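Submission sheet (multi-component)
Chains listed below:
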Amino acid sequence: MKNPKSILITGASSGIGRALAFDYAGPDITLFLSGRNEERLMAVKKLCEEKSATIYTKIIDVLDEDEMKQWIDECDAVRSLDLVIANAGISSGHGVSARQVFNINVHGVFNTVAPSLDLMKARGGGQIAIMSSIAGFRGLPSSPAYSTSKVAVKAYGEALRGRYYHQNIEINVICPGFVKSRLTATNKFKMPFLMESDKAAKIIHRGLEKNKAVIAFPWQMSLLIGVLLPLLPDILIERILRRLPEK
Ligand SMILES: NC(=O)c1ccc[n+]([C@@H]2O[C@H](COP(=O)([O-])OP(=O)(O)OC[C@H]3O[C@@H](n4cnc5c(N)ncnc54)[C@H](OP(=O)(O)O)[C@@H]3O)[C@@H](O)[C@H]2O)c1
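Outcome: structure written.
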């Protein structure tokens, strides 16, 4: 969608969500931003207000289904939502269980997308972007829970895109490679083609403007994992993936 004016972003207190908020901020733009860390979320609000955007913030856990619905309805009542970005997510490691990863990354997306879809179906238009990952191209031994959660939301987004095409609702899946953020800051291994979050936000913004089905970047990672790897025989794919460092 070109020039959305009313945009809701979950997980906007840091990383890619924060960079997206800053990238979209400007005069006559209303941003509804959520996160769990108040200090970081307020810092993003201040930054975006300096670009003359109107900012509403909400401390909310994406796992709270009822509160998420209520919050999204309230935001829509303030200014009809053009674009919703279901971005909040976590990675595996540091004592986080597979179930926690799956819950936040999948149910958190459901809790954001379902109420947004209801509103957009009722008025016959809108755009919803779902944050997956290049790790969502297939299950990866390096991050079983994380990659599975991202495979799930990628499939969900692809399915919704076709389903709501005739209702004028644009659905997009975002698949970044490695982007600098709190999520990747603890990775001990070398991250190929690591990208700054502001650059990632610009690529996502452009992709959403063009209503691309899947916004995968950087192109080198997308080509390697999405196109070249699946051309190899399974036995070779397994051998290659077994060598990836554990998350
Ligand atoms: N960075 C990468 O390389 C990369 C690559 C592919 C995909 N992604 C995806 O991009 C998204 C953003 O990640 P990031 O890299 O920007 O990481 P990040 O800097 O850690 O940001 C994650 C954001 O999600 C929020 N969040 C996490 N759990 C939440 C919950 N239960 N309820 C509400 N908010 C929650 C965090 O809020 P608080 O901190 O306030 O709790 C934070 O704002 C994630 O879905 C991630 O999987 C990242």
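Remark: The mean pLDDT is 96.
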